[in-house]
Specification:
single chain; 303 residues; alpha/beta; seven-stranded mixed beta sheet
């Protein structure tokens, strides 16, 4: 089953050349989840041949424009293209008011239901669950209410060991074994013991999206051991004071957080437009945590 992240934008407040505002798509078992929706997101979706009609859930981290200014245009295009399926939207309180105002003054009436849920950005909480994953909020320390999101795959089914399976099992019996049950006959007599023909499921995969934030060591506990961590790295560490003033992090701090959290892999992004070249930020993060990569446009990571 796929668990794949696609980076659509890596820029901070000001776009730069081929760096665009923050947006990512997480695909799990064919379902697509949009994380932030900066200006131009629908263009990036077209560029990477991602069908926006397949997106059913959107998560917005905060209400700075580089993280949600693309949302109204995307919703409008979904409407114009005849979308009818409901769309779930999660984000800080006030996002619904902004969208309602835009809809009213542009006389826009969506042809599909937009289900908005305001999230509490001050404490971690389960905000969404479906057949593929659970999503918890991650409190960020930014200039306005802001949260990240922790995506955790639902527990996976046990693995059937083909070489140990007796012949003639029905699909229902195979399903029962995959679910962890023994196979019994109508009288309740044991036919196949689950432990004899299955192996433990593979660990559930995890992705943590840490949006704009001051360096927060306490965050390491919330994202401990995740397979993939995205953490903003707006500045080089020589501008640590600037990062503190603007409530952002440096590349070195992102690496420190990843090391403290003992994650498997780190992606850094949200780069200031003052940096034409990104290799210095990557090198700095790697001094703290070697398995680090740049979350640049078009990057696809399979977990």
């Amino acid at each position: 089953m796929e668990f794949e992240l696609k980076i659509l934008g890596s820029a901070s407040a000001t776009p730069f050349l081929d760096r665009h505002h923050t947006a990512q798509v997480l695909t799990v078992n064919g379902s697509q989840y949009l994380i932030d929706c900066g200006e131009g997101t629908q263009h990036r979706l077209m560029e990477y041949k991602i069908r926006h009609q397949r997106i059913h859930t959107i998560f917005i981290s905060h209400l700075h424009g580089d993280h949600f200014f693309g949302l109204f245009g995307l919703l409008g295009t979904m409407h114009l293209n005849g979308r009818q399926e409901p769309l779930r939207l999660f984000g800080p309180a006030g996002l619904d008011e902004i969208l309602t105002t835009q809809f009213r003054h542009s006389a826009t009436h969506l042809g599909f239901e937009l289900e908005f849920t305001a999230v509490d950005t001050t404490q971690p909480a389960l905000v969404f669950e479906d057949k593929n994953l659970t999503v918890h909020t991650l409190p960020m320390r930014h200039r306005i209410p802001c949260c990240g999101y922790l995506f955790r795959e639902q527990p996976r089914r046990r693995r059937l060991l083909a070489e140990r399976l007796p012949a003639g099992l029905t699909p229902a019996q195979l399903g029962a074994l995959a679910a962890g049950d023994d196979v019994v006959d109508a009288a309740g007599h044991l036919l196949v013991r689950n432990a004899d023909v299955t192996a433990a499921p593979r660990p559930a995969r995890t992705y943590a999206f840490c949006s704009d934030t001051l360096y927060t060591p306490g965050l390491a506990e919330l994202v401990h051991g995740v397979d993939l961590l995205y953490h903003e790295a707006t500045f080089l560490d020589e501008l640590r004071d600037r990062a503190q003033l603007t409530h952002h992090s440096t590349a070195r701090q992102a690496g420190q957080l990843a090391r403290q959290a003992q994650v498997q892999r780190l992606l850094i992004g949200h780069f200031s437009s003052r940096y034409r070249e990104l290799e210095p930020l990557l090198a700095e993060a790697r001094t703290e945590f070697e398995p680090t990569d740049l979350a640049v446009e078009g990057l696809t990571v399979s977990v």
